[in-house]
Amino acid sequence: MVSIFNSEKDINGMREAGRLASEVLDYITPFVKPGISTGKLDQLCHAYMRDVQKTIPAPLNYQPPGYPPFPAAICTSVNDVICHGIPGDKILKNGDAVNLDITVISPAGYFGDTSRMFAVGDISILASRLNQITYECMWLGIAQVKPGAQLGDIGSAIQIHAESAGYSVVREYCGHGIGKVFHQDPQILHYGKAGTGDTLLEGMTFTIEPMINAGRREIRTMPDQWTVKTKDRSLSAQWENTVLVTATGVEVLTWSTGSPPPPECVKHLQFRPHLVAV
Ligand code: MF3
Ligand code: CO
Ligand code: CO
Predict the structure, then answer these.
(1) Could you give the domains of the chain?
(2) Exposed/middle/buried for 131, CB within 10 Å: 0-12, 13-18, 19+?
(3) CA distance 24 to 110
(4) Tens-place pLDDT, residues 27-46
(5) Could you give the dihedral angle defined by the CA atoms of residues 94, 95, 99 and 102, in that order, rounded to the nearest 10 degrees?
(6) Atom number in ligand 1 closest to CA 176
(7) Which residues have C-beta atoms less than 6 Å from ligand 1?
(8) Mean predicted lDDT score pLDDT of the chain
Protein backbone atom coordinates (compact mmCIF):
# COMPACT_ATOMS: atom_id res chain seq x y z
CA MET A 1 0.00 0.00 0.00
CA VAL A 2 1.27 3.45 -0.99
CA SER A 3 -0.18 6.56 0.71
CA ILE A 4 -1.24 9.30 -1.66
CA PHE A 5 -2.68 12.26 0.18
CA ASN A 6 -4.61 14.82 -1.79
CA SER A 7 -6.99 16.31 0.80
CA GLU A 8 -6.02 19.38 2.82
CA LYS A 9 -7.05 17.46 5.93
CA ASP A 10 -4.55 14.65 5.30
CA ILE A 11 -1.77 16.96 4.15
CA ASN A 12 -2.19 19.21 7.18
CA GLY A 13 -2.28 16.10 9.35
CA MET A 14 1.06 14.97 7.90
CA ARG A 15 2.49 18.49 8.33
CA GLU A 16 1.53 18.48 11.99
CA ALA A 17 3.00 15.02 12.61
CA GLY A 18 6.21 16.02 10.83
CA ARG A 19 6.57 19.23 12.81
CA LEU A 20 5.96 17.41 16.08
CA ALA A 21 8.64 14.79 15.31
CA SER A 22 11.11 17.52 14.42
CA GLU A 23 10.25 19.47 17.58
CA VAL A 24 11.26 16.48 19.71
CA LEU A 25 14.74 16.82 18.18
CA ASP A 26 14.72 20.58 18.88
CA TYR A 27 13.74 19.87 22.48
CA ILE A 28 16.44 17.26 23.11
CA THR A 29 19.31 19.11 21.39
CA PRO A 30 20.63 20.99 24.47
CA PHE A 31 20.78 17.73 26.44
CA VAL A 32 23.06 15.95 23.99
CA LYS A 33 26.30 16.60 25.91
CA PRO A 34 29.13 14.46 27.32
CA GLY A 35 28.00 12.60 30.45
CA ILE A 36 24.34 11.96 29.58
CA SER A 37 23.18 8.40 28.94
CA THR A 38 21.26 7.33 25.88
CA GLY A 39 18.59 5.98 28.23
CA LYS A 40 18.16 9.44 29.77
CA LEU A 41 17.73 10.97 26.29
CA ASP A 42 15.04 8.35 25.62
CA GLN A 43 13.31 9.10 28.92
CA LEU A 44 13.34 12.86 28.27
CA CYS A 45 12.01 12.50 24.71
CA HIS A 46 9.33 10.06 25.80
CA ALA A 47 8.12 12.40 28.57
CA TYR A 48 8.07 15.35 26.15
CA MET A 49 6.04 13.39 23.61
CA ARG A 50 3.59 12.00 26.14
CA ASP A 51 3.15 14.99 28.48
CA VAL A 52 3.74 18.05 26.27
CA GLN A 53 2.86 16.98 22.75
CA LYS A 54 0.35 14.21 23.45
CA THR A 55 2.03 12.15 20.76
CA ILE A 56 2.85 8.44 20.87
CA PRO A 57 6.41 7.21 20.21
CA ALA A 58 5.96 4.83 17.28
CA PRO A 59 9.09 2.74 18.04
CA LEU A 60 7.94 1.65 21.52
CA ASN A 61 6.93 -2.02 21.26
CA TYR A 62 7.11 -1.81 17.47
CA GLN A 63 7.46 -5.39 16.27
CA PRO A 64 7.87 -6.14 12.57
CA PRO A 65 7.75 -9.86 11.66
CA GLY A 66 10.88 -11.66 12.90
CA TYR A 67 11.84 -8.96 15.44
CA PRO A 68 11.35 -8.70 19.20
CA PRO A 69 9.34 -5.63 20.29
CA PHE A 70 11.52 -2.48 20.24
CA PRO A 71 11.97 -1.61 23.93
CA ALA A 72 12.27 2.22 23.82
CA ALA A 73 10.65 5.41 22.53
CA ILE A 74 13.52 6.55 20.28
CA CYS A 75 16.58 5.10 18.53
CA THR A 76 20.05 6.22 19.65
CA SER A 77 22.82 5.14 17.27
CA VAL A 78 26.35 6.03 18.41
CA ASN A 79 29.52 5.99 16.25
CA ASP A 80 29.69 2.62 14.43
CA VAL A 81 26.00 1.92 15.07
CA ILE A 82 24.24 2.37 11.73
CA CYS A 83 20.65 2.42 12.99
CA HIS A 84 18.12 1.07 15.54
CA GLY A 85 20.43 1.56 18.53
CA ILE A 86 18.55 0.80 21.75
CA PRO A 87 18.85 3.50 24.43
CA GLY A 88 20.30 2.26 27.71
CA ASP A 89 23.03 2.96 30.24
CA LYS A 90 25.61 3.94 27.64
CA ILE A 91 27.10 7.33 28.61
CA LEU A 92 27.88 9.70 25.75
CA LYS A 93 31.45 10.95 25.81
CA ASN A 94 33.36 13.77 24.18
CA GLY A 95 33.99 12.89 20.53
CA ASP A 96 30.97 10.63 20.02
CA ALA A 97 28.66 11.16 17.05
CA VAL A 98 25.08 10.07 17.74
CA ASN A 99 21.98 9.80 15.60
CA LEU A 100 18.66 10.36 17.36
CA ASP A 101 15.73 8.99 15.36
CA ILE A 102 12.24 10.09 16.35
CA THR A 103 8.93 8.80 15.04
CA VAL A 104 5.74 10.20 16.54
CA ILE A 105 2.12 9.31 16.01
CA SER A 106 0.20 12.58 16.16
CA PRO A 107 -3.06 12.92 18.10
CA ALA A 108 -4.84 12.80 14.71
CA GLY A 109 -3.14 9.49 13.86
CA TYR A 110 -0.44 10.52 11.35
CA PHE A 111 3.23 9.47 11.50
CA GLY A 112 6.24 11.81 11.29
CA ASP A 113 9.74 10.28 11.11
CA THR A 114 13.00 12.23 11.29
CA SER A 115 16.55 11.91 12.54
CA ARG A 116 19.61 14.12 12.93
CA MET A 117 23.27 13.60 13.78
CA PHE A 118 24.61 15.24 16.93
CA ALA A 119 28.23 15.92 17.78
CA VAL A 120 28.93 15.19 21.45
CA GLY A 121 31.47 17.85 22.45
CA ASP A 122 34.26 18.05 19.90
CA ILE A 123 34.27 15.33 17.27
CA SER A 124 37.03 14.31 14.84
CA ILE A 125 37.34 15.92 11.42
CA LEU A 126 36.55 12.51 9.92
CA ALA A 127 33.31 12.21 11.89
CA SER A 128 32.20 15.73 11.09
CA ARG A 129 32.96 15.29 7.39
CA LEU A 130 30.95 12.04 7.37
CA ASN A 131 28.03 13.82 9.07
CA GLN A 132 28.20 16.67 6.54
CA ILE A 133 28.42 14.44 3.46
CA THR A 134 25.51 12.34 4.77
CA TYR A 135 23.48 15.52 5.33
CA GLU A 136 24.24 16.57 1.76
CA CYS A 137 23.27 13.08 0.53
CA MET A 138 19.86 13.40 2.19
CA TRP A 139 19.30 16.85 0.66
CA LEU A 140 20.52 15.83 -2.81
CA GLY A 141 17.96 13.01 -2.61
CA ILE A 142 15.24 15.43 -1.51
CA ALA A 143 16.16 17.74 -4.40
CA GLN A 144 15.26 15.00 -6.89
CA VAL A 145 11.68 14.76 -5.65
CA LYS A 146 8.92 16.06 -7.92
CA PRO A 147 6.01 14.51 -9.83
CA GLY A 148 7.36 12.46 -12.74
CA ALA A 149 10.77 11.84 -11.18
CA GLN A 150 11.69 8.21 -10.58
CA LEU A 151 12.83 6.47 -7.41
CA GLY A 152 16.19 5.65 -9.00
CA ASP A 153 16.85 9.38 -9.38
CA ILE A 154 16.85 9.72 -5.59
CA GLY A 155 19.04 6.69 -4.97
CA SER A 156 21.49 7.61 -7.66
CA ALA A 157 21.99 11.18 -6.41
CA ILE A 158 22.71 9.85 -2.92
CA GLN A 159 25.01 7.04 -4.01
CA ILE A 160 27.09 9.22 -6.33
CA HIS A 161 27.68 11.84 -3.63
CA ALA A 162 28.56 9.27 -0.93
CA GLU A 163 30.88 7.21 -3.10
CA SER A 164 32.60 10.29 -4.57
CA ALA A 165 33.58 11.15 -1.01
CA GLY A 166 35.03 7.65 -0.53
CA TYR A 167 32.13 6.40 1.59
CA SER A 168 29.66 3.54 1.14
CA VAL A 169 25.87 3.31 1.18
CA VAL A 170 24.13 0.79 3.46
CA ARG A 171 21.88 -1.42 1.31
CA GLU A 172 19.89 -3.41 3.88
CA TYR A 173 17.78 -0.50 5.15
CA CYS A 174 15.96 2.11 3.15
CA GLY A 175 13.47 4.97 3.29
CA HIS A 176 9.79 4.11 3.20
CA GLY A 177 6.31 5.32 2.51
CA ILE A 178 4.67 6.72 5.64
CA GLY A 179 1.24 8.11 6.45
CA LYS A 180 -1.28 6.57 8.78
CA VAL A 181 1.13 3.65 9.16
CA PHE A 182 4.85 3.64 10.05
CA HIS A 183 6.40 1.68 7.19
CA GLN A 184 4.77 1.06 3.82
CA ASP A 185 5.54 1.08 0.10
CA PRO A 186 7.40 2.45 -1.72
CA GLN A 187 10.86 1.43 -0.56
CA ILE A 188 13.21 4.38 -1.06
CA LEU A 189 16.62 2.88 -1.84
CA HIS A 190 19.60 5.14 -1.21
CA TYR A 191 21.48 3.76 -4.23
CA GLY A 192 20.52 2.98 -7.80
CA LYS A 193 20.35 4.30 -11.32
CA ALA A 194 18.73 7.52 -12.48
CA GLY A 195 15.83 6.97 -14.85
CA THR A 196 14.78 3.67 -13.26
CA GLY A 197 12.14 2.65 -10.75
CA ASP A 198 8.63 3.76 -9.92
CA THR A 199 7.47 7.24 -10.87
CA LEU A 200 6.64 9.76 -8.13
CA LEU A 201 3.11 11.12 -7.96
CA GLU A 202 1.82 14.28 -6.33
CA GLY A 203 0.60 13.53 -2.81
CA MET A 204 3.02 10.69 -2.01
CA THR A 205 4.64 10.87 1.42
CA PHE A 206 7.84 8.98 2.23
CA THR A 207 11.12 9.24 4.08
CA ILE A 208 14.63 9.75 2.74
CA GLU A 209 17.11 8.48 5.32
CA PRO A 210 20.53 7.54 3.92
CA MET A 211 22.89 5.54 6.14
CA ILE A 212 26.44 6.20 5.01
CA ASN A 213 29.53 4.35 6.27
CA ALA A 214 33.04 5.79 6.38
CA GLY A 215 34.36 2.29 5.51
CA ARG A 216 32.72 -0.69 3.86
CA ARG A 217 28.98 -1.02 3.49
CA GLU A 218 28.54 -4.42 5.19
CA ILE A 219 26.52 -4.63 8.39
CA ARG A 220 26.27 -6.91 11.41
CA THR A 221 23.25 -7.16 13.68
CA MET A 222 23.83 -7.43 17.42
CA PRO A 223 22.36 -10.21 19.61
CA ASP A 224 19.60 -7.81 20.77
CA GLN A 225 18.28 -8.31 17.19
CA TRP A 226 17.84 -4.55 16.66
CA THR A 227 21.18 -2.75 16.88
CA VAL A 228 22.88 -2.66 13.48
CA LYS A 229 26.63 -1.86 13.32
CA THR A 230 29.19 -1.58 10.58
CA LYS A 231 30.95 -4.92 10.08
CA ASP A 232 34.36 -3.21 9.82
CA ARG A 233 33.67 -0.97 12.86
CA SER A 234 33.94 2.17 10.78
CA LEU A 235 31.79 5.19 11.64
CA SER A 236 28.30 5.47 10.19
CA ALA A 237 26.01 8.50 9.90
CA GLN A 238 22.34 9.01 9.05
CA TRP A 239 19.93 11.89 8.49
CA GLU A 240 16.21 11.51 7.85
CA ASN A 241 13.29 13.66 6.77
CA THR A 242 9.70 12.85 5.81
CA VAL A 243 8.69 14.56 2.54
CA LEU A 244 5.58 15.22 0.46
CA VAL A 245 5.57 15.27 -3.34
CA THR A 246 3.92 18.58 -4.26
CA ALA A 247 2.62 19.76 -7.64
CA THR A 248 5.95 21.46 -8.39
CA GLY A 249 8.50 19.65 -6.26
CA VAL A 250 8.80 18.66 -2.64
CA GLU A 251 7.85 19.83 0.82
CA VAL A 252 9.86 18.74 3.83
CA LEU A 253 7.22 17.75 6.38
CA THR A 254 9.56 17.11 9.30
CA TRP A 255 10.35 20.78 9.66
CA SER A 256 10.55 22.94 12.79
CA THR A 257 12.29 26.09 14.00
CA GLY A 258 15.35 24.07 15.04
CA SER A 259 15.81 22.29 11.71
CA PRO A 260 19.28 22.95 10.33
CA PRO A 261 19.29 24.91 7.05
CA PRO A 262 19.79 23.01 3.79
CA PRO A 263 23.41 22.78 2.62
CA GLU A 264 25.10 24.87 -0.08
CA CYS A 265 24.83 22.03 -2.62
CA VAL A 266 21.05 22.53 -2.87
CA LYS A 267 21.06 26.33 -2.70
CA HIS A 268 19.94 26.39 -6.34
CA LEU A 269 16.52 25.31 -5.08
CA GLN A 270 13.90 27.80 -4.05
CA PHE A 271 13.43 27.37 -0.35
CA ARG A 272 10.74 29.12 1.63
CA PRO A 273 11.80 27.66 4.03
CA HIS A 274 10.61 24.06 3.82
CA LEU A 275 8.83 24.20 0.46
CA VAL A 276 11.20 23.39 -2.32
CA ALA A 277 10.25 23.98 -5.95
CA VAL A 278 12.61 22.16 -8.26
N1 MF3 B 1 12.63 5.41 12.72
C2 MF3 B 1 13.18 4.27 12.04
C3 MF3 B 1 13.00 4.55 10.57
O4 MF3 B 1 13.49 5.54 10.15
C5 MF3 B 1 12.56 2.98 12.42
C6 MF3 B 1 12.79 2.61 13.82
S7 MF3 B 1 12.01 1.15 14.14
C8 MF3 B 1 12.45 0.84 15.71
O9 MF3 B 1 12.32 3.92 9.82
F10 MF3 B 1 11.67 -0.05 16.11
F11 MF3 B 1 13.71 0.54 15.72
F12 MF3 B 1 12.32 1.94 16.43
CO1 CO C 1 13.39 7.16 11.52
CO1 CO D 1 12.15 6.10 8.61
Answers:
(1) 8-277 (3.90.230.10)
(2) buried
(3) 16
(4) 999 999 999 999 999 999 99
(5) 20
(6) 9
(7) 59, 62, 70, 75, 84, 101, 103, 113, 207, 209, 226, 240
(8) 97
